[in-house]
Amino acid sequence: MYERQSQVKKGRGAVSNNDSRFEREARVLVDDGWDNGTELPEAVRTVIAADTARSIISRNESPDVPFSQSVNPFRGCEHGCVYCFSRPTHAYLGLSPGLDFETKLFVKRGAAELLAKQLRAKNYVCEPLALGANTDPYQPIERMEKITRAVLEVCRDFNQPVGIITKSALVTRDIDILAPMAKDGIARVAISITTLDRDLARRMEPRASTPGKRLEAVRTLAAAGIPVSVLASPMIPALNDHELEGILEAAHEAGAKGASYIILRLPLEIGPLFAEWLQEHYPDRASRVLSLIKQMRDGAIYQSGFGTRMKGTGPYADLLRQRFQLTVRRLGLNSRSWEMDCSKFRTPPSQGDQLRLF
To answer: What are 241-245's contacts with CB under 8 Å, separation 24+?
Structure first.
């Protein structure tokens, strides 16, 4: 009899590293009772490679998000959040959305230069830019790479409005750039706080800042005059949804002015990855969590339709929506997080430009 070998690794979110949907063969590590030295090492190290992107601004037409363009300095994310909706994108690189996504990272070291080039294009129309809509711009490797900071410097020089989405306290490092931009109405930050339970956060988001540090980041940013909102996302039934009001109240006390939430999304490879993670860490409630998720998706594990993919359907989803709306109204967390002033955008002179007389 063969049993699947547990691959839980310290500091990592995914339990396995199964092949992506594009591979013809599926390879799964099993324990056949023979010690043949094929076990994965206890720790899996992070490998960083350069991404030679030729453009940096991504665009979308989704009615479910409040922005239509974004910049992502990295592919893959070392935070290792097991629920991350970006995991399936690693399949396009021939890598696993599992452990590969959080250990094989690609950095866009030319991001700032590419952004400046695109902002200078004659056909560019200024609108708010989201930084970190796909993977976190302040994941651990940003400490040494400083790509996100370089991108922010370009946004500052062009007066390009920018909204940051992160779950890292490292964002406070760049207050010297963000505070003056915020004063001009062209910078905002959204901090994702999924849970206030440090043990759950450690299992679910192993290399992200602790809940306490994220709340402190909200406090620090707010004190610097930077508008901050909280993303209580994703809400997972029977796992963290009971914390919704507590997260919003803690963020409000720290200085947040806006809030939003989404329910857990499990497209493509994320469904099996999350189910595997549940069985490994919370076997006592795994079946109930998955059952409630399906109740919010008309019996499916995921629905991709606009309008429902973020909030779900059915009584359980309706109750969660009502709880959120009541709490936001009570706390006054109704500031619109993507309203920024695009009228101040300007193209600064580049080296070698001829000065104008008039």
So the answer is: 241/320, 243/195, 243/196, 243/197, 244/320, 244/323, 244/324, 244/327, 245/323, 245/327
Return the H-helix or E-strand segment holding 277.
helix 270-281
Helix, strand, coil percentages for the chain (3-state, nearest 5) = 35, 10, 50
pLDDT at 1: 28
Long-range contacts formed by 297-305: CB under 8 A, 24+ apart: 301/266, 301/271, 302/265, 302/266, 302/267, 302/271, 304/267
Q: Report pLDDT digits (tens) over 14-38.
A: 898 887 666 665 555 555 555 554 5
Within 10 A of 88 (CB to CB), how many other CB atoms are there?
17
**Strand-pair partners of 166:** 191
Instruction: Name the pLDDT band for 6 (thresholds 50, 70, 90).
Output: very low
Each residue's pLDDT tens digit, 78-89? 999 999 999 999
CA–CA distance from 161 to each of 152, 158, 246 (Å)?
10, 9, 31
Integer angstrom CA distances of residue 97 from 102, 122, 240, 282: 8, 38, 23, 21
154-208: pLDDT as tens digits: 999 999 999 999 999 999 999 999 999 999 999 999 999 999 999 999 999 999 9
Q: How far apart are CA 31 and CA 273, in angstroms?
A: 19
Residue 340 CB contacts under 8 Å (≥ 6 apart), including other chains:
128, 161, 162, 163, 185, 186, 187, 188
